[in-house]
Amino acid sequence: MRLLAVAACLLALTAGYILLLRHFNVSQLPSEQHFGAVDGVEPAGEVYLEPISVDALNDALQIRAYLSPSVAESKDARAASGRDLTLLVSHDKTVEELKLAAADRNASSTFEVDLNDGVVAHYPLDAYRVEVGVQLLDGKSSLKLPVRVTVWEGVLGYNLRTTNRPQTDPQDVELTTTIARSGAFALFAFCAYAAMVVLGCCAIVVGVLTFTDMRPAETGLIGSLAAIAFALPVLRNALPGSPPLGVQADMWVFLWAELAAVLALALVVFKWAKAGLRP
């Protein structure tokens, strides 16, 4: 029966691990996605959007935008020197402007975009959405020009997926990026919270068995339970992504595990104090 119980636990853990791997798509690797200037249309400029970092606590995604002439125009010095380009990146009722003079080969700018439809309190299952609009204008006439947009879908600790929203004007590029925790970060967080549950359960079992005289009160148990009580906050602070204290997982796991460890320590100390011989 014991071997069957161990085998059942191992099968359950293996099945749960496989489901988590499939849910978080751990094998997904960062890649580049290309949008705009399709169907043989030669773009007037190339735009490269590179996410730099995600600040879930402040609901911000930092992006660096690069603007350069198209490959065809960059080969023709006269064509490139006669056109100024203006890039407009719209997000959250804000427009970022990046200008490229005719004599320049590239320009870059860094800005922050708000994270929508998500909150860090759902860590490690928090997910967000970012909407960005891209327009390329002639620097002199302000006429819209075709543009090719390349998006890099790679930020350490997060999975990004960018899609294009259809627009009536083919010159406009509207992008939607979904952001979620990467599989490795989420799995590590789940394992850490599972370890907190195990430590809390072990502590309360030791405390209850000692208090009910099913096990003798030993001074070594006091040191072990005190170590568990101090180890839980250290394990909590080591979670990937540095989530703020007070997320929902803390209220359901960390808080109760810490209370269980402290209660077990109090029970063992109380029983040890009563069981000792009076001087």
Write structural notes for this entry.
With 279 residues, the chain is an alpha+beta fold. It has six helices and eleven strands. Helix 1 (2-24) runs antiparallel to helix 4, helix 4 runs antiparallel to helix 5 and helix 5 (219-237) runs antiparallel to helix 6. The protein is elongated, with a radius of gyration of 28 Å. The model is unreliable at 76-81 (pLDDT under 50).
Key attributes of the depicted protein:
279 residues, Immunoglobulin-like, 2 domains
Itemize the secondary structure elements and their pairings.
Layout: H1 2-24, E1 32-35, E2 45-55, E3 60-69, H2 71-75, H3 77-81, E4 85-91, E5 94-100, E6 107-114, E7 127-138, E8 144-145, E9 147-152, E10 158-165, E11 173-181, H4 183-211, H5 219-237, H6 248-275
Parallel strand pairs: 2-9
Antiparallel strand pairs: 1-9, 2-3, 3-6, 4-5, 4-7, 7-8, 7-11, 10-11
